[in-house]
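Continuing the series of single-chain predictions for the mutant panel. This is the parent chain; the variants come on the following pages.
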Amino acid sequence: MDAFLTIIQSVFKVFQDNILTKPEFFVGILVFIGYLLLKKPLHDAIAGFLKATVGYMILNVAAGGLVTTFRPILAGLNERFSLNAAVIDPYYGLAAVNAGLKDLGLAISFTTLALLVGFFWNILLVALSKLTKIRTLFVTGHIMVQQATTVTWLVFFAIPELRNMGGVALIGLLVGTYWAVFSNLTVECTQELTDNAGFAVGHQQMLGVWLTHKISPKLGKKENSLENLKLPKALQIFNDNVVASSTMMVFFFGAIMLILGEPFLRELDKANFPATLAFPTYIINRALMFAVYVCILQLGVRMFVAELTESFRGISDKLLPGALPAVDCAATYGFSHPNAITIGFLFGMIGQFVAILGLLVFHSPIMIITGFVPVFFDNATFAVFANKRGGVRAAMIVTFFSGILQVLG
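Parent structure:
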């Protein structure tokens, strides 16, 4: 039995390392299989695989660029002012729980097995959709790894009696149920946003997306969405998301960089801030990279979503009737006004700063620093859904309070 489990674990480890944690290949393979099930010619299936994979890789380039450009600047506040604070960031958390598992004397392979159980449990719940009502298959591999690892550490830390294969199986059932049920909550929201594009959200914000969908109509009117916003003639240039996001980031991130100071930033970002580059030029360059990466991200989204939603019909018709893929939250960004992303980021960050100020004023024993991943991806996603249901006012209110909760939570 132990030898069999070792073989299964080894096979899945290869699958995890080379496909599941490489969402571009995972999505590409799903597209390829879907087109074959639709009886498309082989060359069409290969073309679909390539376009979906490249589209997802473009999205990854943009997402990675946003994080690597702006995360150090925000984290620099911690170092610059010796705050000894925790940074809100799932990747910091992933590194911490991996270290925690090692400290407990536990193998990281437990996480792999929990992920395996969870993934196949999700498939089973979708296959039994007539009983379970679950329609979504969570396919955002890197998020699955983050969440399975975190839950494994939490359970093993809190309940030492479960540090065994039985505990691993229970963790797998827990995370698999979470992926299935909470991504299923986003089906109605995402279908309404995308005019039935045929996917749901499978990421960190699933409950938040559902709540945003429910409360946004009470916070504003959908007729007052960004798409319908009438600006004075002199301000109509801000209807263009490149102009709007560039301007906002120059002022907003410019202020943060001025607070950090030129000497500190030269030391922090030697690669992009050589001695020959003036400080104002550096500020403008870094701020404008936000608009660059957002444009790249939207290009990647359009490429892979078009292929995935078309091809997944083959899987839902032949293998998992009625199934929808639950994918990266960024897939929704192409279905709203581009400025919704900027609004979400800006008001989410303001909310976080207000909450951090509250921690300082009330002398909190725990200090928090804004992390780029939640402040951008969470709040941009909420803003996209809020704008659809409650207009720009709802987008501002939802993301502002989201920012507060991200810190206080």
